[in-house]
Amino acid sequence: xxxxxxxxxxxxxxxxxxxxxxxxxxxxxxxxxxxxxxxxxxxxxxxxxxxxxxxxxxxxxxxxxxxxxxxxxxxxxxxxxxxxxxxxxxxxxxxxxxxxxxxxxxxxxxxxxxxxxxxxxxxxxxxxxxxxxxxxxxxxxxxxxxxxxxxxxxxxxxxxxxxxxxxxxxxxxxxxxxxxxxxxxxxxxxxxxxxxxxxxxxxxxxxxxxxxxxxxxxxxxxxxxxxxxxxxxxxxxxxxxxxxxxxxxxxxxxxxxxxxxxxxxxxxxxxxxxxxxxxxxxxxxxxxxxxxxxxxxxxxxxxxxxxxxxxxxxxxxxxxxxxxxxxxxxxxxxxxxxxx
Length: 340
Hints:
Number of domains: 2
Radius of gyration: 21 Å
Distance between the termini: 41 Å
Largest sheet: 7 strands, mixed
Oligomer: single chain
Shape: elongated
Strand content: 15-25%
Number of strands: 15
């Protein structure tokens, strides 16, 4: 199945990856790339530069779902029978794919991580997918990337197999900041504790979510605080489906509704007071804006976390909490206006 994004990136999503032209050589970057943080960006920039020297495309191979999420849903660990928790996600799939394009991917191959792929040996992964289907000439991976059944494949194996199959393997030293390794795990931790300034530093930009504004239950309007609604996930499966690392009440900046950004306050979570479906929704109340945004694609940048999401006993209590959040968000924006 081939799906089109807003921009002219080509996305190939299939249980059996199919390259558009296996005779065309390519430079390939491989990884989960959750967050597309500054470490990822450095790797992708180096791969893109080499592709330009060689006169070939720079493509990216990534996976969905995240391997740890796949194993957690089945109650097993990647390396043992003990269950490892599914990782909280930094981005939606949509945002990851667009970030990969912005970071220099000519096309993205999205490979479904399923039981067949989980059972494939590292050597078979290289020979059947990277060589036979993608005709790689250079492969770029992070220094901690592992592949193949039981994570047996690494940079050393990739380099060895490249000698037999006509490609070279490359990696970069870890990117650090103030002695801290920039990684998806570090970004997740920063988001989970609400340190959005550190997450911004690791990512190179504020954490954001994009999508089309959907019709909701109009509860915000009933409470006196109309919202723009973006659905970030479907219902959870046994509590293990897509879960954002960042949750709670946030000060936000919205792009896509006019020439200038619009500020507001948002709730990112499962709406525990009014809904039990377990879907993650981003609800944004904008300050000083009126209009019809339904169907429009917006980008919501999260600037500051005010508090965690809570469940309230009734709607009047919820209304008062929102009133307090609006006041707190406006105060934060006033205090930080010079940095925005």
